[in-house]
Amino acid sequence: MNTLSYQAPATFWEEALPLGNGRIGAMVYGGVARERIELNEDTLWSGRPGHETGYQIPEQIEAVRQLIRDGRYAKATQQTNEMVGPHDSQSYQMAGNLYLDFGEGSEADDYERTLELGDAVATACFVQNGVAHTRESLISTPHQIMATRLKGDAPGSLACTLTMDSQLHHSCRVDGSALILSGQCPRENRSRGADDIVWEQDGVGGMRYLVKVQLLNQGGSVSAAGDSLVVSDADELVLLVAIETGFVSFDQDPSDDLAAMEQACDRTLAAAVAVGWEGLKAAHVADHRALYDRVTLDLGEADARPTDEILKGCTTPEEHPALVNLVFNYGRYLLISCSRPGTQPANLQGIWNDKLVAPWRCNYTTNINLEMNYWPAETCNLAECAEPMLRFVREVSLSGKRPARELYNARGWCLHHNSDLWRYSYTGGAHAQHAFWPVGGAWVCQHLWEHFAFSGDREFLAEALPLMKDAAAFLLDFMTENGQGQLATCPSTSPENSFLEPGSEERASVCEGSAMDMTMIREIG
Fold first, then answer.
1. Of 226, 329, 330, 379, whose CB has the highest number of CB atoms within 10 Å?
2. Does 315 have pLDDT greater than 80?
3. Sequence-ordered list of residues with C-beta below 8 angstroms from that of 310, at least 6 positions apart, any chain
């Protein structure tokens, strides 16, 4: 059970097939008359480095603590909402869409669309007007490029128009046989609505980036038509896609040098052209399988039906071990595809996003989701894929010193429930049940210990221990005596949960020493 297969093209984004090399991501639709490839790059986020102001936590926290100890949880929740105020992380953004319009109808025979999980190659095959077409796509880690090959079994059977667009501010142009999109992210995109997006502030916008598509044709011709490329009568086409952004570091302003980004794309493209499709594919498959083949799970049952048919027929996992096997392999595939050494960690959607305003900003939600992404890393012998997460902890331990000091007058560092490319560590949202939870540092530190527990790497442990000690130092300073000779967090929340206040039955979400908090503190202790 190592293949996703379908008998029709994707009709919406969630049906498309995901490819990735940790940095570059793509969703491939497999369309017949029109192919759409949605592109992502893991450093393409709104915003710039900065810190938050406007909190009332230092002035009001003692009053909230007293309300909690008096049993007035609803009032304490209301006051916690007020002292936190509206703050949140930035948003992960999509780079753009690459379209191939073929000028033919969508009717085709013998259609099949697959994603081979072991090879990390997406393929669409079909017959149209008597010509058998094969389209293969991959995203290479060794060559840092996306590559797509289109081939028909009749000479001169390929004709299409290539265009690009994006929901971000952008422009497109053609340079010879290359199609280029340059764009810019919003300066601020922290909301859940497009009306609140700020594209520029004090003359400064967000991250700039460039996508360059190099078209290689065998036979036929390639010509420019405005900001499009037109292919006529080709035998075979190879599309190479390089993406560069202005990202420098989580604590430095990004570069606006589009010329340098294009030069970097040109170097990547030139290296890929020199290798050719077969060389790119061979290196890519070998690199991917070096990770994917480390673990084999065989639950003793296979199912050759298309994947959507398997899903439709599933009632309970116990009755469908083949689907369980496929989901296990797909999970490993996704982690390999969206988290590699040197890349950003997997966000809420891994590395794939097609929206300007994504659900929950497609951020790093640290009260469970970020951690869940990496549960398979050590247990499935994919320790290399955990490197972005481990680096994230090191970086957020630096950014988290400011809110620890400014909001809580505490040592060490803290992390609330949302973060982003810029290692945002302040509160997220205006409601206490999710916003007020400065215990995230304790949870992400568990991944440091897990890495040591699996690897036995004492050199790594020597680097990780100071981070864990500083996270513990914050918690020691944040906790207060509960009147029974014990230390407890206060205010405390069980993330995203609420309860009814005894007696009044009013909805509340803050208390003293939630089980969630105390469990995390016990673990890091």
1. 329
2. no
3. 303, 320, 322, 323, 326
Distance CA 202, CA 482 (A): 47
Strand partners, 98: 37, 164
- As a whole number of angstroms, the distance between CA 33 and CA 16 comes to 16
Report d(CA 34, CA 475) in Å as an integer.
55
Q: How far is CA 244 from CA 180, 259, 261, 344, 389, in A?
A: 12, 11, 6, 14, 22
**Partner residues linked to 165 by β-bridges:** 97
> Please, are residues 52 and 430 in contact by the beta-carbon 8 Å criterion?
no
> Which of 272, 269, 258 has the alpha carbon at shortest distance from 181?
258
Q: Are 161 and 231 in contact (CB under 8 A)?
A: yes
Cβ atoms of residues 155 and 300 within 8 Å: no
Q: Under a CB-based contact definition with an 8 Å cutoff, are residues 31 and 99 in contact?
A: no
Task: Using alpha carbons, select from 425, 350, 348 the residue that is nearest to residue 385.
Answer: 350
DSSP 238-261: EEEEEEEE---BTTBPPP--HHHH
Contact 311, 4 (CB under 8 A): no
Which value, in Å, is the radius of gyration of the alpha carbons in the chain?
25
Structure tokens belonging to residue 237: 């086409």
- pLDDT, tens digit, 9 for 90 and up, residues 265-292: 999 999 999 999 999 999 999 999 999 9
Calpha distance 315→216 (Å, rounded): 47
Q: Say if CB 15 and CB 307 are below 8 A apart.
A: no
- Round to whole Å and give the CA distance between 230 and 139: 24
Taking the C-alpha atoms of residue 64 and residue 472, their distance in angstroms, rounded to an integer, is 23
pLDDT tens-digit series, residues 195-244? 899 999 999 999 999 999 999 999 999 999 999 999 999 999 999 999 99
β strands within 58-207, DSSP E? 96-101, 109-116, 121-128, 131-140, 145-152, 158-165, 169-175, 178-184
**Euclidean distance between CA atoms 412 and 477, whole angstroms:** 9
Place of tokens 């908090």: 517
Strands (E), 129-175: 131-140, 145-152, 158-165, 169-175
Angstrom CA distances, 289 to 141, 193, 445, stand at 12, 41, 30
Q: What is the pLDDT of residue 24?
A: 98
Give the separation between CA 191 and CA 188, rounded to whole angstroms: 9
Task: Give the tens place of pLDDT for each residue, 35-66.
Answer: 999 999 999 999 999 989 999 999 999 999 99
